[in-house]
User: What shape does this take?
Amino acid sequence: MAEPVDVAVVGDGVVGAFVVAALLDAGVPAVRLAWFGDRGGYERRSATRRSGGLLRCGVAEGPAARLAVESFAQTWRQHPDRVVSGAVEVVGRDRSALLLPRVEELAAAGVAGDLVTTDRLRKAIPFAWDDGDAALLEPGGGWAPPHAVRSRLVRAARRAGVALRDVRPVDAVEHDAPGPVRVRTGAETVRARCVVVAAGRSTHRLVPSVPGTSRLRRIGYAYYDGLLPPGLPAVNDEARGLWWRPAPTRTHPARYLVGRAVDAPSDGVTSVGRSVQQDEYVRAGFAALLPDAGRGTYLGGVTSFDVQSDGHASSTPWHAAADGNVLAVHGLDGGGFKQAPAIARRLAAAVMKEETS
Assistant: This one.
């Protein structure tokens, strides 16, 4: 059995990586910190690996609203990988009443935001928006490449002396009160005083006491050159289950990454590569917005997912198990990337409080 540690982090996506950084910043010695991941799983299944990386506070409610604002104000606004394109979140008439209070919340936190009416929206983004559509505009919003953000955190952890143990996936997180928690892989078992589990879709398997159930919402992603006019901000169209952001390259300066939620496997969205069905499915989402949704060149795509949680209500996006010795992140519902820095800081504070109590 390997040497015991104070804290173990399970999960090598962007949330887990920010947790490791926050624990180091909070004073956990690198030699007393273990970080577990799954190299093959990250490449094939991680939500971070295929996230769009939109950075905005958005029209959120409850804990997610506070975490998104805190993350943007304290981390993303200064992050070296952030690309400022502006960010717009479009809502239908039934949600438009949330916009003005949200603008006021952002202003109180020092984040610029503006309510955009239907007429202004049509002028700013010349699509066929429905009457009653409105939007939250965040001029400082935009996006960041998630894999680059995560790689930066992995390198920083390595320089600090924390190596990511990702050759074998974690098989189990076990606890027999009042002893330490055990993190078991096929190669080793590590004992820890406290374990933070931020393993996405695997969290419920590793910590069965997490309330509710998790399900995957599949998203078809596609790259296009010329489908959308140049110069658009990053947009989340909540009303239609669409989003897009600029993704320019030297050879395709007008390229966009477009996502559309997938309701059923029969929609024909493939896992990766170039697919006529995937192209048709994503374009169909724009049929009501664009007069010519068939224009432009399809450059290929992938399928990713959000981990959605049902049947839970919590004031924090994590669940305390094993007498508080296991903290399991859950309930992010697709907001993990933009909320990750604030979640990580709060988890690190909870771990340090437990250590001194």
The longest helix spans residues 336-356. Residues 119 and 131 are 9 Å apart (CA to CA). The radius of gyration is 21 Å. Confidence is low (pLDDT under 50) at residues 265-269.
